[in-house]
Recover the amino acids of this structure.
């Protein structure tokens, strides 16, 4: 079945610097790739997503890139701020073919150092 | 984004009792609803997927007789943990998916079984 690997498990960056989190997926039929941010004790919140017909998507300080050939996608956060500290999860889905299930990465704990 | 509510947010019960958790999509019709379990510092573990009016599809290793799911309408799904035991203590989160594959999460339910 589909497998999603996420790296690193922990990422510590200086406030103002950029952070990059990478994920790889195994099933080439995957066509939807969301990123979620989860603060301690809270629900995961969708921060950005990308579909397989697009190579890059940007929303203010957050961007996601997708390389379908290599089967990997990445989250980029620029000008990091303390409120960016959280656990970030990537996921992959085959849409209706898999009843819209998401296959989740293991998560990355992002720490923003003041 | 879309709003998903989940009740109760916290529940403490005695071993052997049953607990019902409700998940509602408040401003959209959810084609599919998902139930997850999350252990501390871990990723989300999918328990089951449900479509309105049909039986839930459970993931391998999840006991369907213990975790009863009823997807009564396009806006409501319930999870009942039957005869709960301390090992069932966990953070349970539901999510609802629209036609575009995006999943929106409820705030979660912290279950503690004494």
């Amino acid at each position: 079945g589909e497998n999603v690997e996420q790296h690193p498990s922990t990422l510590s960056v200086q406030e103002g610097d950029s952070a990059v989190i990478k994920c790889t997926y195994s099933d080439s039929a995957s066509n939807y790739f969301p990123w979620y941010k989860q603060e301690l004790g809270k629900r995961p919140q969708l921060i950005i997503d990308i579909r397989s017909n697009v190579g890059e998507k940007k929303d203010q300080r957050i961007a996601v890139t997708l390389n379908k050939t290599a089967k990997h996608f990445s989250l980029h956060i620029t000008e990091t701020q303390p409120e960016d500290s959280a656990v970030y999860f990537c996921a992959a889905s085959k849409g209706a073919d898999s009843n819209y299930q998401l296959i989740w990465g293991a998560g990355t704990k992002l720490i923003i150092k003041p | 984004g879309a709003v998903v509510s989940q009740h109760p947010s916290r529940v403490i019960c005695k071993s052997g009792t049953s607990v019902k958790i409700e998940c509602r999509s408040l401003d959209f019709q959810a084609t599919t609803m998902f139930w997850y379990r999350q252990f501390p510092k871990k990723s989300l573990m999918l328990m089951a997927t449900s479509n309105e009016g049909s039986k839930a599809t459970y993931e391998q290793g999840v006991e369907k007789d213990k975790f009863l799911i009823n997807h009564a309408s396009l806006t409501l799904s319930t999870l009942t943990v039957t005869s709960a035991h301390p090992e069932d203590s966990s953070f349970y989160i539901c999510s609802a998916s629209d036609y575009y594959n995006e999943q929106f999460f409820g705030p979660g339910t912290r279950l503690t079984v004494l």
Observations:
- Chain A has a mean pLDDT of 95.
- The radius of gyration of chain A is 14 Å.
- The CA atoms of residues 31 and 52 of chain A lie 5 Å apart.
- Chain A touches chain B through 21 residues (CB under 8 Å).
